[in-house]
TrEMBL record:
Monomer. Residues 328-463 form the Aminoacyl-tRNA synthetase class I anticodon-binding domain. It comes from Albidovulum marisflavi. InterPro entries: aa-tRNA-synth_I_cd-bd, aa-tRNA-synth_I_codon-bd_sub2, aa-tRNA-synth_I_CS, aa_tRNA-synth_I_cd-bd_sf, Glu-tRNA-ligase_bac/mito, Glu/Gln-tRNA-synth, Glu/Gln-tRNA-synth_Ib_cat-dom, GluQ/Sye. This is Glutamate--tRNA ligase. It holds the Pfam family tRNA-synt_1c. Keywords: Aminoacyl-tRNA synthetase, ATP-binding, Cytoplasm, Ligase, Nucleotide-binding, Protein biosynthesis. The gene is gltX.
């Protein structure tokens, strides 16, 4: 059985778009779920717009998303001699021809065609010209595409798509300056890299027809096509910056965990029954091209946050902590000290609940990340009135003699509150203010357990001084 090989082939002209990230994920899932290979090719033939910085951003984005690739990253530009070699091979086989038409001649033809209401599809006069009439001048190499019949794409997502050959031109494969075109380079690279399945955006569907003609001209096996719908914004329009973040790295800086992002992107246009939340292992096992819908998917930040919250809740501490540190770096925030890391590690159990993003989790962790003397917010100050301070002053020596378990802490606080005819809820406000300097925090008992006896008592003494 042939090993499945997929690829992701972005152009390094800017950040990694979230749509590109989903395309990469679909290719990765399809290959990894079938013991296949997932390859990465950087389509850097546009030398004016391609930048090393954009390539680095793509690699960083894929690495953060957890999509590992096999082998070295392939540069399309570095393979230009191979692309030219294939163009000349097609010429030798009679499947391509030398075209001496200049850009001015082509544009003049199109202008005349527009004026006369004819098709502007350029038909080169050199297609069947006698080689004896060829001038000693620069020439492009054009594919000698079939003029009659149809080119049929059997697409795993779009179904059977038919193109009339008389609507497809003889595309340029090698320009007159000897540089290959993108349309030729893609086919040569996919063939040489052994790509069996081309999974990409449906904006490439028209390209598939012309690329199939190159495969046929070379006698190569045509890969399985799967053209996936694009991602739209919540309003149903093509996703753009007006909808919010569109670059993958922005999502890391906004504090979404990679596992939640993978889960959400997998569900964006693909379904496995009613499953919403699933693990990487399940995604690899379940993912299939038949589950991809034909309609554009809509970005939904509420669903994304919901899934991210579920993943934060189940990710082991030893995986979550490094990701939180990477988020802080991506967001340009100060790194944690070793003391803060230790405190955060102790507190994770009570921070996960209802934290949908890392900024929410970090905000809840304020009590353990802050150091004395605490800055007490205005609302929290109101909870520390004279009566409340008196009760906390009375509580402090009781806590000095307590064994530091949740049951005993609850019993001690309840006893002091009861002596003043108060319920636990009435004393929780002052305790929050004293321990965290805020009114919204994790449970006061969780904070005590995380901070430890010495730090808890020190903060109570600060608040009552």
């Amino acid at each position: 059985m042939t090993q499945i090989v997929t690829r992701f082939a972005p152009s390094p002209t800017g950040y990694l778009h979230i749509g590109g990230a989903r395309t990469a994920l679909f290719n990765w899932l399809y290959a990894r779920g079938r013991g296949g290979r997932f390859l990465l090719r950087i389509e850097d033939t546009d030398r004016e717009r391609s930048t090393p910085e954009a390539t680095d951003a793509i690699l960083r984005g894929l690495t953060w998303l957890g999509l590992d690739w096999d082998g070295d990253v392939v540069s399309q530009f570095e393979r230009r001699d191979r692309h030219a070699e294939v163009a000349h091979e097609m010429l030798a086989r009679g499947h391509a021809y030398k075209c001496y038409s200049t850009q001015e001649e082509i544009e003049a033809f199109r202008e005349a065609a527009r004026a006369e209401g004819r098709s502007t599809l350029f038909q080169s006069p050199w297609r069947d010209a006698d080689p004896a009439t060829h001038p000693d001048a620069p020439y492009a190499i054009r594919l000698k595409a079939p003029r009659d019949g149809q080119t049929i794409i059997e697409d795993q997502v779009q179904g059977t798509v038919t193109f009339r050959n008389d609507q497809l031109d003889d595309m340029v494969c090698l320009r007159s300056d000897g540089t290959p075109t993108y349309m030729l380079a893609v086919v040569v690279d996919d063939h040489d890299m052994g790509i069996t399945h081309v999974i990409r955006g449906d904006d490439h569907l028209n390209n598939a027809a012309r690329q199939t003609q190159v495969y046929n001209a070379m006698g190569w096996t045509v890969p399985v096509w799967a053209h996936i719908p694009l991602i739209h914004g919540p309003d149903g329009k093509k996703l753009s910056k007006r909808h919010g973040a569109v670059g993958l790295e922005e999502y890391q800086a906004m504090g979404y965990p990679a596992a939640g992002m993978r889960n959400y992107l997998a569900r964006l246009g693909w379904a496995h029954g009613d499953a919403e939340f699933f693990t990487d292992e399940q995604a690899r096992e379940w993912f299939d091209l038949s589950g991809i819908g034909r309609a554009p998917a809509r970005l939904d930040f509420k669903k994304l946050e919901n899934l991210c919250g579920q993943h934060i809740a189940v990710t082991p501490d030893d995986q979550l902590l490094p990701e939180i540190e990477a988020f802080l770096e991506a967001a340009g925030q100060p790194a944690l000290s070793q003391l803060q890391k230790d405190g955060l590690a102790r507190a994770l159990y009570c921070l996960r609940e209802r934290s949908k993003t890392f900024p929410e989790l970090i905000d809840k962790a304020h009590f353990v990340l802050a150091s004395r003397p605490l800055v007490i917010e205005e609302k929290a100050q109101a909870a520390l009135d004279t009566v409340s301070r008196g009760i906390l002053h009375e509580l402090t020596p009781q806590l000095q003699n307590a064994s530091w378990s949740r049951d005993e802490l609850e019993a001690v606080v309840a006893a002091v509150a009861g002596a003043h005819g108060l319920g636990l809820g009435k004393i929780a406000g002052p305790l929050r203010a004293a321990l965290a300097g805020r009114t919204v925090t994790p449970s006061v008992f969780d904070m005590m357990l995380v901070l430890g006896q010495e730090e808890t008592i020190a903060r109570l003494m600060d608040a009552t001084a």
